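Q: I'm building a small set of examples for a reading group on sequence design. Run inverse folding on the following structure and report the sequence directly after it, with nothing in between.
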């Protein structure tokens, strides 16, 4: 693989003052020139952007994120798991809900932004428990005993560190590196102090789990075999849903700074004081079908003279030895929460300083840098320190020569409109390694590029073919450290040759198998027929595939491959075949050419997490053509302005008008939150140009 082009971006790029103030994109943090604001006055730039990050932003009201400790693109994401009194459900996507002030542990892995409850990961919740362990924690199905309330007044979070004092009296202080972490647990003096490892209790359940305690070595080792991304919802098939399956095993290796006073294990309802090993998973169902199942273990400490406990822990998707090696390399003996937190704080500052801002209010600066922080949580590192990683085929692979890391967790449909462009600007090296990882994962799964990868595994979630515009964008923006020719050939193959896996209706509508569902029919009709497409929605699939094909065509032309360009470029206009001129909107169309009955702009029939009023704008490859079909530029501009504002010119993002009803809800768009949003947040979520493309600038509304 070639390395990134040296001239990928200008070194410094100043942007006009706006809602944030002065903005400077810096590709190297060594030089920071003065930036002029309004009136030519110098605007001081933020020098410590990490201090403006608030990890609690987005942890309620559908933000689907979490406040725990993680590093940029980190493998470990150590964060609390909430409970509402059901051990099989946290009550929140991705494990934490700000308004739920009861915790059942601190889990080692998380996914940022996934909108389905409970999302994914949340592996190995670890709970400091004050009290005896005389019954099985798994049998505590309502989390009545082995959980604790807390107050937000006793909770704090900042990039790389999370701290909370539970009402039980136990205090937890967490800090991380990329693949490992350090924790300080402080128990009340003289209390029965125990640390529970709920090895089988991942957010979606588990197929198997193991724990092994070695008192002489002061270690706790184990693993969990899990997966089930969004599969617990039973979307498209209940218990037979193709996502109710395991696709990774997470290994962990923990070592303590003091001796154990006692040990124990449990499996299902059986508790074994003095036990040192246990195994057993929970399954992937919900409620009574899963409650009371699973395994884990605990270690206890004498708190008569010293009530503080330090634990160092490493994780790996490859092996137990890999987890231990990651731990010793990144948080070696002598590492503390303070030293680990300081190193990760510095790492976050390095990343955040790639965009310098100044002149904004405290609130806007906080919103800005928190958004950038969220955008750089993923993709997640998957490779161990030795370069090995778990492939999509569940086999262990090694990095390619020149590849710095393997990255996973790519929510393609959610990311390709905004987050990947930011990544290409700020970290083209990571973008290239991400592209290479995506290509290698596809090669390991019969050439199929999945729409939503959790780690390296296909989940089939959403619609379209987002890998195509993603890699085409990287190529166009100068990312060079991936095998571009091999990637283009692979994506074109899937766009031109019907894959048998894409002929099944399994998992539909939201998790349909295959990269290009019913491709042969799509190519024959030149649109995705809503009644036979094996997709979430025919109109959405047509729009997404049109953009994907246009992206591949332009990539091919840039690469000097005119034959591919001529083959694919006409397919970039297939969106016109689902534009219904009788209503002036995109609409669901049947295989016989007829339009779905009962149309209104607010309908979601034929669309994926969006409506016709929203999706109609998704033609960035042919803005003028879209305007012409709408009746001209003036008519298109008027309609677009009406999508965002009410009759009085105020921002309107919810209901009250068929053009807006359900159209601008944060999770009913052709893109769910990626974390990279600048107020007004809704603007970046419409996949279309603003009306100034067609008209002179209008007064900016705040």
């Amino acid at each position: 693989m070639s390395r990134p082009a040296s001239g990928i971006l200008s070194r410094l790029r100043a942007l006009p003052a706006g809602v944030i103030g002065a903005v400077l994109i810096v590709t190297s943090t060594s030089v920071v020139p003065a930036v002029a604001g309004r009136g030519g006055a110098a605007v001081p730039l933020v020098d410590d952007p990490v201090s403006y990050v608030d990890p609690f932003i987005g942890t309620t009201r559908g933000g689907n994120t979490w406040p725990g400790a993680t590093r940029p693109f980190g493998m470990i994401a150590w964060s609390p798991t909430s409970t509402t009194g059901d051990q099989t459900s946290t009550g929140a996507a991705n494990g934490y809900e700000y308004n739920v002030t009861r915790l059942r542990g601190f889990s080692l892995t998380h996914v940022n932004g996934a909108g389905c409850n409970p999302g994914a990961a949340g592996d190995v919740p670890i709970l400091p428990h004050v009290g005896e362990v005389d019954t099985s924690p798994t049998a505590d199905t309502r989390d009545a005993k082995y959980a604790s309330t807390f107050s937000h007044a006793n909770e704090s979070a900042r990039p790389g560190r999370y701290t909370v004092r539970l009402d039980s009296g136990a205090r937890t202080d967490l800090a991380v590196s990329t693949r490992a972490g350090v924790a300080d647990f402080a128990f009340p003096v003289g209390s029965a102090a125990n640390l529970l490892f709920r090895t089988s209790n991942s957010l979606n359940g588990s197929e198997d789990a193991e724990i092994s305690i070695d008192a002489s070595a002061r270690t706790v080792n184990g693993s969990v075999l899990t997966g089930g991304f969004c599969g617990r919802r039973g979307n498209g098939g209940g218990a037979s849903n193709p996502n109710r399956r395991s696709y990774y095993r997470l290994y962990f290796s923990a070592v303590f700074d003091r001796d154990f006073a006692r040990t124990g294990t449990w499996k299902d309802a059986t508790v074994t004081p003095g036990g040192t090993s246990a195994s057993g998973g929970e399954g992937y169902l919900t409620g009574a079908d899963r409650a009371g199942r699973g395994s884990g273990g605990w270690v206890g400490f004498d708190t008569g003279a010293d009530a503080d406990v330090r634990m160092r822990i490493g994780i790996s998707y490859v092996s137990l030895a890999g987890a231990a090696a990651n731990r010793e390399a990144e948080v070696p003996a002598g590492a503390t929460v303070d030293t680990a937190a300081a190193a990760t704080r510095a790492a976050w500052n390095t990343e955040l300083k790639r965009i310098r801002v100044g002149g904004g209010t405290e609130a806007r600066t906080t919103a800005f840098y928190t958004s950038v922080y969220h955008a750089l949580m993923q993709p997640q590192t998957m490779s161990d320190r030795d370069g090995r990683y778990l492939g999509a085929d569940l086999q262990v692979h090694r990095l390619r020569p020149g590849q710095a890391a393997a990255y996973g967790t790519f929510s393609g449909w959610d990311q390709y409109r905004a987050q990947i462009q930011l990544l290409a600007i700020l970290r083209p090296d990571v973008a290239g390694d991400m592209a290479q990882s995506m290509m290698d994962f596809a090669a390991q799964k019969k050439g199929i590029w999945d729409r939503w990868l959790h780690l390296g595994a296909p989940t089939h979630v959403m619609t379209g073919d987002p890998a195509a515009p993603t890699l085409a964008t990287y190529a166009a923006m100068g990312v060079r450290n991936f095998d571009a020719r091999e990637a283009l050939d692979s994506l074109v193959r899937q766009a031109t040759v019907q894959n048998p896996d894409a002929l099944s209706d399994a998992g539909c509508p939201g998790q349909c198998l295959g990269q290009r569902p019913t491709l042969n029919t799509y190519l024959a009709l030149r649109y995705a027929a809503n009644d036979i497409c094996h997709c979430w929605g025919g109109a959405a699939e047509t729009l997404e595939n049109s953009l994907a094909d246009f992206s591949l065509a332009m990539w091919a032309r840039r690469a000097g491959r005119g034959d591919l360009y001529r083959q694919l470029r006409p397919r970039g206009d297939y969106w016109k075949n689902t534009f219904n001129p009788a209503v002036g909107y995109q609409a669901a169309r049947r295989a016989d050419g007829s339009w779905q009955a009962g149309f209104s702009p607010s309908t979601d029939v034929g669309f994926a997490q969006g409506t016709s009023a929203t999706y109609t704008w998704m033609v960035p490859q042919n803005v003028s053509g879209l305007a012409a079909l709408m009746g001209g530029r003036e008519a298109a501009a008027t309609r677009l302005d009406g999508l965002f504002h009410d009759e009085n010119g105020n921002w309107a993002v919810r209901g009250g008008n068929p053009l807006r009803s359900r159209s601008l809800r944060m999770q009913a768009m052709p893109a769910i939150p990626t974390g990279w949003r600048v107020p007004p947040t809704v603007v970046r979520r419409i996949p279309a140009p603003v009306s100034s493309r067609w008209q002179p600038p209008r007064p900016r509304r705040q």
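Confidence is low (pLDDT under 50) at residues 1-12, 233-239, 660-693.
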